[in-house]
Queue: 4 jobs
Job 1
Amino acid sequence: EQHRVPAAIDAFRHAARSPDRTTAASACYHLGLLYEQQHHYKSAVREYRRAARSGDHETQASAYYHLGRLYEHRHRMTDAVATYRHSVRLGGSDSSRALEALARLAP
């Protein structure tokens, strides 16, 4: 599986340049996931931020949730709480996990 990661990163980088904002944001989100899995946290943060700025509500909510996880992992709790709150406001499939994180961090 590891030998496929560079090809996937290249494909998502190409898609991230799409003129279609939804396609580009989805590609950025998936790049964030790949970078996070590879422990390239700075790159993951950059891509999640890009996805959060321009994706549809589901992509934005998921990007904010994952961004919150990275901030929490790096002990940036104020930033983590703020991004989890963005995820909850937007709704989506990760909003329940963002709510759980908020309950743990900001009771």
Job 2
Amino acid sequence: LMRNLGSEYLVWDKVATIRFLKPGREMLYAHFTLTDAELDGLRNELETASAAERTYTIDLVNAEGVVHATLEKTIHVRQKTNRERERVDAPEEAAVVRSAVPSAPPA
């Protein structure tokens, strides 16, 4: 959704549920369909609203099309603020490496 709307929008997963129907012992696939009308409607709604939410239902299927699980996702969408549009991450921030393992005490 974020790629289709463009870089001026933020898209977050807000809620997700999954219903397992069969064990997934093989590669499973998800197919997403977003129409131009749906994307245009969302953009138009965000011209006057601060945010919008959409709920999508997606089936996880095997190569033969057999449904193994059904997901329901609620997506939160909003336009980026001017500050978010102008923000550029500093190169030194990207180089910071964080470790979950504490370092050894100084000798």
Job 3
Amino acid sequence: LRRQRQRCIRDSYEAQNNTKNPTKGKSNSAVENLANSFGQAFSNGLNDVNTSQNAAYEAAETFASGGDISVHEVMLASQKANLTMQMALQLRNRLVNAYNEINNVRV
């Protein structure tokens, strides 16, 4: 799961860097603004996935070291992290499929 998370984060940063406006000084079009806001929303979502993964790891570590946390809280954090990762992967898969369909359209 860590590899998948790191790959998703790396892919999102690369996508975000590719959507930056290379021509500075010119006003952005509506499409560029939409692409930038989508990239920012996607990046925020991946940061949330990363946060939930880290919270689950810390909860498990605290429980294993005998800290003041119940097994229920550890399992909830773990399942939340799992669900956010599954959702991020499904979103990525759908975006890749949409991109491939757009590339296959003949003009």
Job 4
Amino acid sequence: RKESSAASDVYKRQVLNNFVTFIPNVFSPNGDGTFDTWVIRNIEKHPEATGQIFNRWGAIVYEGPMTAEGWKGQTNDDKDLPMGTYFYIVKYSPDSKALAGSVTIMR
């Protein structure tokens, strides 16, 4: 885990199949062009990657592929989620161990 003064620089670090993957724990989908999507670095190396995002009550708010384009902080039907902390489960492939953690949306 790397920490710095910028909230966007806090990551969970994972080495998988010789690729270092960083999972940010905060992003700001506010349309300013900076950290607007939640992008897992090197996710493109894992084309079968999928994820689930849960709200604080455990309801799934997003479920689908995890791609290099990132998650925009929206539900599956493209509704913006409110600012807050959400929880994720990401699998790089159907047979891989699931990674879990939290991500905060700052608007």
